[in-house]
Amino acid sequence: MGVWRRLLVFGGVSLRGCGGVRVPLGGSRLVICRRQFSGAESETLKQRRSQIMSRGLPKQKPIEGVKQVIVVASGKGGVGKSTTAVNLALALAANDSSKAVGLLDVDVYGPSIPKMMNLKGNPELSQSNLMRPLLNYGIACMSMGFLVEETAPLVWRGLMVMSAIEKLLRQVDWGQLDYLVVDMPPGTGDVQLSVSQNIPISGAVIVSTPQDIALMDAHKGAEMFRKVHVPVLGLVQNMSVFQCPKCKHKTHIFGADGARRLARTLDLDILGDIPLHLNIREASDTGQPIVFSQPESDESTKEGPGPERC
Known about the structure:
Blueprint (H helix, E strand, L loop, with lengths): L2 H4 L32 H16 L11 E8 L7 H15 L5 E5 L7 H4 L17 E3 L2 E5 L14 H13 L6 E7 L6 H9 L4 E6 L3 H16 L4 E7 L3 E2 L6 E2 L6 H9 L3 E5 L3 H8 L4 H4 L4 H4 L9
Parallel strand pairs: 1-5, 1-6, 2-4, 2-5, 6-7, 7-10
Antiparallel strand pairs: 3-4, 8-9
Helix pairs in contact: 5-6, 7-8
């Protein structure tokens, strides 16, 4: 599975706390007061802070039947996030056929999963009035794209979007899943916050191109997940290099190694480099993802062309 297999290895993160410093604002002299806490007092203070921060936040509740949730996110749209999510789900299933894998598309305004997974139709309802996912390539899929016409725009305000997200999270009969891959919308808004605070998440994968403009938003996306205590598993550098199919010259259209530099800044791993290749685009557009339709191809099994540049 090459680069996609590397996305199957999940790690944890350590959260660090820091001591407080109080700086009075009034008066002509600057006074800095520090207080040393014993181990028990420090732990009590941490617990108290945690209680205050959690007030008003929804309590996380696991999705019934789902063991682990992996979210695939990006700060910027158009960087290949959905392509990565689809192929990651298929790689998880191919890596261990005994594992049940699902794919949830919470990009309400621009759902891509129906087309990429070659699925159409409306979900059936179970006896408990829950939506049953549509199935293809062995992956159970749910998306807002199954509930509205393909060309119909969703002109919804925030409350309607949040209601739709709640239904996608709580009113789907997934059966028993080992992994649920969640394709998030771009940005760091209401949907990302709602998903992160409502369900326990095993980790987040951040997708970006090497371009500076995309990396700025990817940085924000990674920091958002850290703020809500979701482990960031690492970065995927998509469209890392283009290799001419005729002369074999390699061109870094979006810049070289930008995501690797960001990963070093954030102290994260690079989970893989995915090249800009016609086969990947065509496979996605035809609803036959490359990990499924061409599992032995270079695009599925390798990181892509090496660092040599034109």
